[in-house]
């Protein structure tokens, strides 16, 4: 069938782990503050508290694990994986750490990596229904339907009242063309959650495959009643009506399916068939043309900014960043004066003159991180993204805790198509306290 299972993964909001009594008291305070903030959904504050705990006691796995959870709840799954890696290095027997790392890997579509983590978590804790469910979802995403079926069945054995797992198993049975078995599972979902439209829709689709069109239409009616915008339900109901030779009824449903999803070429084909049966050959030909042409032509235009973050988005996000332009004691080389004059010239629109002044500031003071960063910002505005990245690299080398630089470098990398590198930089910016990074992560890193 045409429906896909959407991963339903559960992030653990706080760990049952505790920090050892041998740690410094200040580390304990920060750790407990992080747990409290996590429980109140202040995940930004939580990850900062856990970072403080880590800085004071870097050998405690619980701090890394809980910071990973905080990052995951901020949708920073790449950053979370790095923290789970460290937690597992320090404590390789923690089933929760493997489970959580698997969740974050699956959110990045690394389903094979997630499988390994879920399997290890199961070895350490073989009675957790959620882990079997998660592993089953990852297996469906790489077409391992037999293995997924076994995982969903084991999850149901451990937790027999979970409607979501019955639903996932039903869809997996559809993939394996066991339509009768899927009807049984969808019926169980209806019993557990009678207001869930997808359960009626899925059961109706399986009944279509079993040629039980009258019963399929009843289920699809219920799906549409509960979810009037479900285009797939209209499509399958149209198909069932067409098979029952109700071409006028099918035509109306195909119209609705196309209105809800204009590129549904299968619906155009079905509508064309019905129009032909009803004597509208001209309309039928038009629909058949659409069914042939839609999604059948690849005409991708050349894109310079080949990430999801376009040039305009990059400009908008980058331009909100402020240079660290604080007054400093003027040195004998006058580098600070060149720097400040460059910033002023740039604000007046004299970007070339600004670059010249920043070049001079760097020449006079090669360890001037702010000058590299400011020059990098101007280069990015001018379209020289590679030059901007080089300046950001220099600024970070000179000041590894320069959060704004990680943020801007992450934006640029992402816009150039390096999504993983960009998102890791954004994660680091957030970890260092530049909170706007998490909004970008939630939009572009998942």
UniProtKB/TrEMBL annotation:
TPR repeats lie at residues 27-60, 61-94, 95-128, 129-162, 197-230, 231-264, 335-368. Residues 1-23 form the signal peptide. Keywords: Repeat, Signal, TPR repeat. InterPro entries: TPR-like_helical_dom_sf, TPR_rpt, Ycf3. The keyword Acyltransferase does not apply. This is Tetratricopeptide repeat protein.
């Amino acid at each position: 069938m045409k429906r896909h299972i959407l991963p339903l993964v559960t992030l653990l909001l706080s760990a049952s782990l505790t920090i050892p009594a041998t740690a410094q008291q200040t580390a304990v305070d920060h750790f407990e503050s992080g747990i409290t903030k996590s429980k109140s959904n202040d995940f930004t504050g939580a990850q900062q508290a856990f970072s403080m705990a880590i800085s004071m006691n870097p050998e405690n796995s619980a701090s890394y694990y809980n910071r990973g959870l905080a990052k995951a709840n901020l949708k920073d799954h790449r950053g979370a994986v790095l923290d789970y890696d460290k937690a597992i290095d320090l404590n390789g027997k923690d089933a929760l750490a493997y489970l959580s790392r698997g969740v974050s890997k699956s959110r990045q579509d690394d389903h094979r990596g997630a499988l390994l983590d879920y399997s290890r978590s199961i070895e350490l804790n073989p009675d957790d229904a959620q882990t079997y469910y998660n592993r089953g979802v990852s297996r469906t995403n790489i077409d391992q339907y037999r293995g997924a079926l076994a995982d969903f069945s084991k999850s149901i054995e451990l937790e027999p009242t979970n409607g979501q797992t019955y639903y996932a198993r039903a869809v997996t049975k559809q993939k394996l063309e066991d339509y009768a078995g899927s009807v049984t599972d969808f019926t169980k979902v209806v019993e557990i959650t009678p207001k869930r439209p997808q359960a009626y829709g899925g059961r109706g689709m399986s009944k279509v495959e079993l040629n039980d069109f009258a019963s399929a239409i009843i289920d699809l009616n219920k799906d549409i009643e509960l979810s009037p915008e479900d285009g797939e339900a209209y499509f399958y109901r149209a198909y069932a009506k067409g098979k029952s030779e109700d071409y006028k009824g099918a035509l109306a449903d195909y119209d609705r399916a196309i209105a809800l999803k204009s590129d549904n070429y299968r619906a155009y084909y079905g509508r064309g068939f019905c129009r032909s049966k009803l004597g509208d050959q001209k309309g039928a030909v038009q629909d058949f043309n659409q069914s042939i042409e839609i999604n059948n032509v690849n005409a991708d235009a050349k894109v310079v900014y080949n990430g999801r973050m376009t040039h305009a988005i990059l400009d908008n996000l980058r331009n909100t960043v402020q240079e660290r332009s604080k007054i400093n004691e003027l040195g004998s080389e006058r580098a600070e004066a060149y720097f400040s004059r460059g910033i002023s010239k740039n604000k007046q629109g004299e970007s070339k003159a600004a670059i010249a002044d920043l070049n001079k500031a760097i020449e006079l003071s090669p360890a001037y991180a702010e000058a590299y960063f400011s020059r990098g910002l101007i280069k990015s505005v001018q379209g020289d993204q590679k030059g901007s990245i080089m300046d950001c690299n220099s600024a970070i080398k000179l000041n590894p805790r320069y959060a704004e630089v990680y943020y801007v470098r992450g934006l640029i990398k992402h816009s150039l198509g390096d999504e993983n590198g960009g998102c890791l930089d954004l994660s680091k910016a957030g970890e260092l306290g530049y909170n706007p990074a998490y909004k970008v992560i939630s939009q572009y890193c998942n």
